[in-house]
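Narrative of activities, Objective 1.

The group set out to show that a structural description can be obtained from nothing but a protein's sequence at a throughput compatible with the screening campaign. Below is one input-output pair from the validation batch, recorded exactly as produced.
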Amino acid sequence: MNKQHLVPWGAAEKANWLKEQTIKRSYKDEVITKIEKLKSTMDVTQYGALSINPSLYPVFLIKTRNFDKNKKTILITGGVHGYETSGVHGALAFMEKEAKNYTDTFNILCTPCISPWGYETINRWNNLAIDPNRSFIENSPAEECVLFLKAMEPFINDIYAHFDLHETTDTDNSVFRPAKAARDGKEPDPWSEIPDGFYGVGDTENPCFDFQKAIIDSVRKVTHIAPADENGNIIGEPLEQEGVINYPVKSLSLCAGFSNAKFTTTTEVYPDSPKVTDAICNDAQVAAIKGGLDYLKNA
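Output recorded for this entry:
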């Protein structure tokens, strides 16, 4: 193999990669318009904007009204990886259609699209070829994370549960993992297979078995749950239970690990399955949140 291929990218390679990225859809038309409609029933604030184009990429925090310190606070995050579409639209659908059914019990916060440039360019990375979902740390190199963490400061000690909405797509193997290997100067390491169906990712240090099961049981009413591969794994990790694996979310600097929330989950919808539609994918994200919240109401 050409050893030059194994040299990590420098500034020039990252700049060349950026030049290759193109706008494929509209954050304003597809996301901001939905956020604007929520202003009649919820508190919506802009907590920053991406410096690559502040006028195009504002980021928003949505709050249910009448926050009550006596209620537990729930956080929903979407679009940490901008290309994971149902994470964004599932979060917005929950806030539009379902959040009102839980405000007697919970305060609800939602950042529906943390990475709007990634949304428009259908990218896992930000414009600096950084994965935001490995960057939720103090002095983060990812601007998306810096803005989010600043916005969360007033709530950081009150977050009881955190739902971080994601997707696993065919392009994870065909596009993003090869790009990551090239960026890092390593051999390509694709997953053995992309899971066909929904799965969840819990925290290795705080797995919340019953909470994750409640999510899976809710989602299975909407779409199918991903089976394990021949080795009993999903994306190389052993099953904790049906449809659930665990990651060390804090040591990996994942969004789900930024706080000390008692309950956390990262949802993973599979939009490339022939068994689903975009609407089913969005509904699966909503079902995951509802299943978790219904469990927490009685926890």
